[in-house]
């Protein structure tokens, strides 16, 4: 790892992490089935005001990580290990009611599908004021102008009318804006966005991303961006964690990661993006195979069967996560 | 557990109805154009589809006529339904039932009371029993369903085992048993007996759709905002689970009317025949069924038409609210 230059973090971020996740593991157990470890010893930090990306394919454990931090995994059938300390409090050990008080106030989350994330039988206004009533102790009447202002701030035109509307009367982009308004209603210090643009049109995606960026910069909210889309990472994140098979395989600042990807998986993700400036008819270079080909991490590198440059040790020994500063890498034979 | 087992079949039917609510409400939601006038709820958009359904209009028409008749029947009935006005014509040997005549278009019953008036006023009893039995059954079923669906775990297991036991007894038999236990049969015992049969149906239905809501995206999203458990149950889960229950209650109205008629027919109903009731009239007509079948046919027709009206209304309501069955 000597050739990995550690660039100092952007100076505007404080040094004490806001959220510090250590050795987070989530194992699902179903009767009559082998236990399945979806997240396997994940550690990362989020500093105040920082935007951190969790990147990976479907099934790599990025959503489960966020649900575990939020305490939103189903109460039965899973084991969560490790710690997630938020301003010094371990969220994973908090009693359910204390965690409920923090959700929406200190930490908020927005989800992938804005339509199904809104209650179809309750007007948008009521869903926004509900959060204000809950966490800021406002009466519904007092919350009304605040809700209007929130919708206005996330760029929903004619907010007075939209407050009375039901979710199905809003367009996809407006729905996601409304959800962002709810998430930011109590000025949380951390926002987790789980693929917030995946269900939206490309043009709307860009709008939502720039809105998120703007709000995060204005309010100083830290953002954990969960995505499979490296374009989103390039536009938004300060620091990126690449997940594979429930483990972090590479970490770096955005610039390092894009300029100098070391893990073959990161490299493959970058290479599989179609380029507008590439030669016409130049073939795309996908990563072969699928997540289903994974080896167990116990005695091998899970990515080995799909790797472009495997060596013998890859199927014999678990690669350790070698860290130096922000940069981290889990690979026996990294890309030079 | 063969599919022919009536117990299993009934449970499956209930679960199928509950699944209606489980299917993402997107189906309904997408139907509403994005730019309607503000504040058009899903109920409103379902209503706009219902208005164009001939089946619904027929069912609603029958129901409306029945309800209006029941309300105004004491005013429009030509005679007092309890007065034996044609009693002097009744000859137990030669002419037990006076036939149609001037002022008595359908004739009289074996006690000389005007048949038309009895049918008209009888609609009142039928409506009262049907509506109150449904409301009582709904209240009981909703309470149990909310309990099971909101708490889950052992509460759910306990409630659902009780419900399963109730469902395993054939519904009419259960109603008969409850009515028969009552020391003095009356309208109230009929209502309780008929309602008790519906409680497990409503409970299972609501519990099924609440469980589906529990893991739905918008409930998880509400949880992510720290919404209290109480608000999650009553604002986010319950209203989204009610569609199949609303549908079921219109169907239950029909079933309650039939069940109540069956109880009266067997003499387990209100013994006071100064208050005419269709099932009771049907029961009394048995003695004369070969010679004077009209005594049975008129009340039977009334029961059939009213039950049909509620059923048509319920089925079209179900179709309007169920995205899967929409064409």
TrEMBL record, chain A:
Topology of this chain in the membrane: Peripheral membrane protein
Location in or out of the cell: Cell membrane
Gene3D superfamilies on file: P-loop containing nucleotide triphosphate hydrolases
Cited SMART domains: AAA (SM00382)
A GO-annotated cellular component: plasma membrane
Superkingdom of source: Bacteria
Entry's family note: Belongs to the ABC transporter superfamily.
Name of the protein described by the UniProt record: ABC transporter ATP-binding protein
From TrEMBL, chain B:
Keyword Chloroplast: no
Bilayer-spanning residue ranges: 55-77, 127-155, 162-182, 188-206, 245-268, 296-317
Domain ABC transmembrane type-1: 123-314
Domain of life: Bacteria
Subcellular location: Cell membrane
A Pfam family per the record: BPD_transp_1
This protein's UniProt keywords: Cell membrane, Membrane, Transmembrane, Transmembrane helix, Transport
GO cellular component: plasma membrane
InterPro entries (UniProt xref): BP-dependent_transpt_permease (IPR050366), MetI-like (IPR000515), MetI-like_sf (IPR035906), OppC_N (IPR025966)
GO biological process, one term: transmembrane transport
Membrane topology, from the record: Multi-pass membrane protein
Alphabetical list of CDD domains matching this protein: TM_PBP2
UniProt cross-references to PANTHER family, sorted A to Z: D,D-DIPEPTIDE TRANSPORT SYSTEM PERMEASE PROTEIN DDPC-RELATED, OLIGOPEPTIDE TRANSPORT SYSTEM PERMEASE PROTEIN APPC
Family: Belongs to the binding-protein-dependent transport system permease family.
Name of the protein this chain belongs to: ABC transporter permease
Species per Swiss-Prot/TrEMBL record: Phycicoccus avicenniae
Native organism taxonomy: Bacteria, Bacillati, Actinomycetota, Actinomycetes, Micrococcales
